[in-house]
Amino acid sequence: MTEAALAAWLGATLGTPARDPALYARALTHGSHSADNYERLEFLGDRVLGLLMAEWLFALFPNEPEGALSKRLNALVTGPVCAQVARAAGVAPYLRLGKQARDDGASDSDNVLGDVMEALIGALYLDHGLEAARTAIHRLWGERIGKDAAAPQHPKSALQEWAAAHNRRPPDYVVVDRAGPHHAPQFRVRVAIGKLAEAEASGASKQEAETAAAAALLARLTAP
Asked: Largest Cα–Cα distance in the chain?
């Protein structure tokens, strides 16, 4: 991938030309390729994304209480959603991966793509400031933020509420398996409500697997 092609893609994706190309190159670099990778920028971008998304939701839903706003925020900044945004933006061809990571399919890993999307936001913030980051986030997340008329209920919270409403023990989550390479792990989690019922599900992170397992168990418990 040429520097000119990367610069053109960055400008089109983030909405402003790169003043410091090295920042964005680092944001696209996986640890398998270089020690100078995206991890620190991902740390920063995660916080920038959270702040600007909270600001946006606060303005968009002026009558919603804190709990509903938190549900919306949590649904929009998860790793899988960041990975979806990265895929829609066409991030994968620009990733800088080591050979083993490429062979293992890291370019389509939710963990990698989600982290890189946050790292790009961190790079944009350092390069152009908060307003540029705000504009980019509004463009990249625009179709997702107003998708749900009501604030979405997280499956783990919904399962917890179901258990309390039915005088049952709180859900118990256990990791039953972990497989795959470091950059693309797969977790399998079992959730149970006492001896009443249980379900298992897999995900690219422990949190993702727990969420999927909670959704599966809730669907089982509430099925007609």
From this structure: 62
> Residue 9 contacts by C-beta under 8 Å, 6 or more apart in sequence?
90, 94
Active site residue 46: yes
Of 66-70, 82-86, 154-158, give the lowest mean pLDDT range: 154-158
Q: In this predicted model, what pLDDT tens digit does every residue of 179-190 receive, in sequence order? A: 888 777 889 999
Pairwise CA distance, residues 148 & 185, whole Å: 30
Average pLDDT taken over every residue of the chain: 91
Handedness of CA 77, 83, 89, 92 (dihedral sign): positive
CB 38 within 8 A of CB 116: yes
Total-model pTM: 0.76
CB 91 within 8 Å of CB 117: yes
Catalytic residue, candidates 42, 110, 118, 208: 118
Reference 221, options 177, 175, 155; nearest CA is 155
Spot the catalytic one: 46, 110, 115, 208. 46
The residue among 193, 151, 146, 156 whose CA lies nearest residue 171 is 193
Each residue's pLDDT tens digit, 131-163 = 999 999 999 999 888 766 667 778 888 899 999
